[in-house]
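Reproducibility note. Readers wishing to regenerate the assembly model reported in the main text can use the exact inputs given here. Chain order matters: entities are listed in the order in which they were concatenated for prediction.
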Amino acid sequence: MTVKVFEVIEAGLFTCLQDLGRQCVSQYGVGQSGALDETSFLWANWLCGNDDNSPCLEILLGGLTLTVLCDTQIALTGAIAPLKINNKLVDSWRSHHVKSGDTIVIGQSTKGMRLYLACRHGFYATPTFNSVANNARELLGGHQGDGSKLIVGDALYCHKSSHLKNDSERQKIAPIQAYPNFELKRVRFVRGYQGNTLPTIDIQRFTSEPYRITQQQDRMGMRMQGAGLKMPTTPLDSEGICYGAIQIPPDGQPIIMLKDRQTIGGYPKIGSVFPLDCFALAQAPINSKIYFEEIDVLEAQRLMQLHYAKLTLLKNKLKPD
Amino acid sequence: MSALASFKIEVASMQSFIVYFAHNNTQISKRMASDLSTNLLTEQASWLQEVTPSFSSVLISYDLHHADYYRAKQFITQQCNFLLSSQIPENTHKKNQLSNKSKSKNTASKTHIIDVCYNHPDALDIEHIAKHANLTTDELINLHSNLTLSVDAIGFAPGFAYLTGLPPALQLPRRNTPRLKVPAGAVAIAQQQTAIYPEESPGGWHIIGLSPATLFDAHTSPYSLFKVGDSVTFNAISLDEYQRQITDKKRVVS
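Running the prediction on these inputs yields the following structure tokens for the assembly.
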């Protein structure tokens, strides 16, 4: 049973429904999709007592206004932007109870690029390949199943209403360690693909010069600008592109492939960005200067497992207000 | 005695490997890639997140919660070795084992006959292609519809298949200026490939005809009409037949 939970009064630049994306679909030419900053996405859900994969709204830069149509609980995470409930400024990164008739206003972000809004029990939409993740280019997923972003007048549904009959269901606050790294300075990558045949000196040059995050970025990928890298010109057959892959097109400027990337491509790749740094890239402001840093695949796995363990620890310590 | 295929497994990311098959005959290395992909997707190991076959490569991404570098690499190596050994004539029993398994699970490669209307008004480039190939339009249609093409990769868009096998005479570079809108069902060529655009989209390939076939349906198995490893031949149909099929499709949907 689903319930109308919000009406969109202001839609923002690009707001869409996301979850953790699709799996085992690339053989159909269907992309992964899913939240760009997975950690913030998870925290929005945990603050509302939801499962890991409950759909949330991913809001680019803010500017979203919603009218509440049924009682529920919300949490806003990710980038920092002013959050007002009924014109009163309240904190992000913690849950709030909202009642039918309330107004939620999310202003423009001042730090970071993507915000995540969860509601209790998760948003509802008809899934495509077991996911509601929006993919605009593929015309799949999202709140209407066709890859469209939110527009004024849209209705959003949740799985069921959440009446807090008594005070026993208190609000939760995320610890400060949960916040994204808004000051990304180094982007770690694992060498791979055609990167293993590159001379060491090229990798050394690549990792010793700064790269700037350009305006040419979206959910598909991020174009970087810097000294550049020359890759061998032997034409490649198209091959699968994994999450975080660093493509080097003929002009030598790296493109980091993100969640809405095409499934295959023929540009050479030197390896892939470490997932945690992919999430951080999605929060880094345009024109940020970063340095690439190579890490070993086993070291990357160790760091990732440590991250999972830390998250579990922090999640279990979530105290109600 | 034909040379054996070989493979190498490269790291692609923290949680992905890419397998490259090699053989003097690329038909064989491409066959190995599509077989590996089919085997992995059929087994559906709990730690598998993505299997992307493309030409002679297979990208495999795995879930770190369920497997690590060593476990994934070992499993993939075993699968590759098994495939390779089933290519050896003495091991025909292994080959039969694999082919029976794939037949029973309906994962064997298919041959598709796809209707194409070459004289559709939206087949905007057919004259340009004929001129480039030094053929009349009729000769071009005859040539194109007698080819057997192989599905070597699916990507760019859901259900968008790269069909390889154009003769040199029909190989043109991409258009200098891509079109903003190529109609759904457009059959187009560029360099060594033919493709059918599943949905209206921008496109830089030369349009040779229009097909009423449904290439992709997100809610109905098998989702994508084509699978890497399949074969395709085109069947020329009249404009009337094309219109009839399109009308029938619309009737079914509504």
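We highlight two features of this model. Chain B is about 30% helix and 30% strand. The longest strand of chain B covers residues 6-13.
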